[in-house]
Amino acid sequence: MANNEIMQIGWEEWVALPELGLPAIKAKVDTGAKTSALHAFMVEKIIEEGDVKVHFGIHPIPERPEVEVYCKAHLVAEREITSSNGQTELRYVIRTIAKFGKKKWPIEITLTDRETMAYRMLIGRSAMEGKLSVNPEHSFMLGALCPSGYDDIVPKRKKRKMKICILSRSRNIYTTDRLVTVAENRGHRVEVIDATRCYVDISSNKPAVHYQGEVLPRFDALFSHHVNTNYYGIAILRQFETLGTFCINSASAIAHSRDRLFAHQLLSRAGVSMPTTAFAHYPGDTKDMIKILGGAPLVIKLLEGQQGNKGVVLAQTNKSAAAVIQAFRGLKANFIAQQYIQEPKSKDILCVILGNKVITAIQQETSSLEILTDEVTTPRKSHLIEITSIEKKLAIRAARVLGLKFAVVNFLRTKAGPRVIDVNSSPSFKRIEKISGLDLGTLIIDYLEHHARPRLPKRVIGYSI
After folding, report:
1. Cα 376 from Cα 77, distance rounded (Å)
2. Would the N or C end of the chain have less CB density within 10 A of its end CB?
3. What is the reported pLDDT for 61?
4. Is the pTM here over 0.70, yes or no?
C-alpha cells in the first residue's frame, strides 16, 4: 500500500496508542467531532525538565474496570470542546502516536470522562484527514487487536480507603446510620452532609462545594438518601458530579424519577409496560381525561415530591376524581391521572435493583383498594416472592431507562403481564432489610468499592442552544 493511499475503516475499529502503553483500545469513529477523545481519570498537569505534561489513568476495557493503565503525554493545549449534547468543556489536549492497522501517525486527543460510555475512545476528523475514509456499513475493517496485552497488568483489586459523602438530613436516620457504620468499619472516611446547608463556587477553574464555612474535600463516592428534591438539592448533587465524585444515582436520574410525568414519558418511550396514564392542564379537559382512562376508579398522583404511596389518591367515582383534580389545581400542584387496575388477584411487588441485578423482590399483601392509597403506608403483610424472568427484565429496564443504579421498582402482576406503577430512587433500608434479611448497607458499600473510580472533574464552560 502506498504511503499516500487512503485506507478504509469501519464505524468502529481497534486502535493502538503505543506511546501511552495501550496495545488495544476499541474506538468509535465520529465524523461529527473534529478532535479525537480518550477516556481519562486522575488527570494531573506536571512539569518535567521544563516540559509541560499530563499524567492520567484509563480503564481501556469497559468489561474489565479493574484494569487500570497510567499514562504520561505532552500537553499541547487546553481547548474548549462542545460535545454532542451541547455542553462546552475545557479539556486537556495531548499529541501521541496512533496505530491504525499497519500504519501509524501522530494525532491530537482530548482527555475527558467516558467512564459510562461503551467506547473509551472516539476518532475525530483531524486524525483521519488525508489518511482514512469511513465505510459506515462495516466495522473492524483493519482487523482485531487482542486486549490480552493487558493481562500482565496487575489488577488494582486491593481495597483502597475511600472518602465517602452521604447526602442526608441526619446521621440518626436508619439508612444513613447503616451506611456510615459499615463504611467506617472498613476504614473508609465518611461525612454526612445536609445538602440544604451546602453552597457552591461555580468556577471553571476551581469549582467547589462549601459546607458550614469550610470547603469540602473531593470525595471518591457519594450516596444520596432523601436528597431535597427541589431545584437546590439536585443542583448540589450535580456540583459534586462536576467535581468528579462517583454518585451511585446521578442528579439527572434522581430528578427524572422524582418527576412522575417525565418518568412515565421516558418509560413509555422505552416500551416499559404501565397502566394507561393521562395529563391535562385546562379544567375543561377533566371529563375527557377521565374518559381516556376508562372512568373511575382511577389513581391521581402528584408529579413531584415524595415517592411511594405519598402524594397518591385513589378516586372511586368520576365525581370524586373531578373534585380531587380541582383541589390539586387550586393548590397549583401538577399531577397525572392513571388507570386503576381492578383485579382481585393482582399482586403488588417491590423489586430492589442494585447495578444491573434484582437483589430481592417483596410482595405487599394489601387489599385491592389499598395498594395505591395514602391510607395504608405500611401494608399488613409482606413477604419475599420469586418473580419471573420477564418481570426481572422489566424491573431492570425501568431502572436503567431512568439511569438509576439503586432503586425500588414497584409493579403490579396482572393478567396482561407486569405493569410498572412507580420507581423509587431513594428507598429506605429498614423495611427491606427486615423482610428480606439482606444487609443493604454492606451491599451498597461493596458496590461503591467495586465501581467507584476516580473521575475527571468536568470543567464545564457552558451549553449551546
Report:
1. 61
2. C
3. 84
4. no
- Taking alpha carbons only, the member of 280, 270, 272 closest to residue 300 is 280
Q: Pseudo-torsion of CA 334, 303, 271, 281, nearest 10°?
A: 0
Q: Report the run of H or E that residue 269 belongs to, with start and end.
A: helix 260-269
Which burial class, exposed, middle or buried, applies to 12 when counting CB atoms under 10 A from its CB (0-12, 13-18, 19+)? Answer: middle
C-alpha cell at 236: 448540589
d(CA 141, CA 143): 5
What does the alpha-carbon distance between residue 391 and residue 10 come to, in Å, rounded to a whole number?
Answer: 38
Cis ω for the linkage preceding 18 (within 30 of 0): no
CATH topology assigned to domain 7-155: Cathepsin D, subunit A; domain 1 (2.40.70)
Centroid of chain to Cα 253:
6
- What are the residue boundaries of the structural domains of the chain, listed by start? 7-155, 163-256, 257-424
Q: Is 73 helix (H, G, I), strand (E, B) or coil?
A: strand
Please give the class, per CATH, of domain 163-256.
Answer: alpha beta
Kindly report the CATH number that applies to the domain delimited by 257-424. Answer: 3.30.470.20
Of residues 52, 35, 54, 34, the one with CA closest to residue 44: 54
| Percentage of the chain exceeding pLDDT 70 | 86
Least confident of 22-31, 202-211, 383-392: 202-211
Q: What one-character DSSP code corresponds to residue 155?
A: P
pLDDT tens readout for residues 38-89: 998 778 788 888 888 998 888 888 877 778 888 999 999 988 887 766 667 7
Alpha helices in 281-411 (DSSP H): 286-292, 318-330, 389-402
Distance separating alpha carbons of residues 277 and 298, to the nearest angstrom? 10
Integer CA distances (angstroms), 331 to 132, 228, 259, 313, in order:
61, 21, 17, 15
What cell does 400 get? 436503567
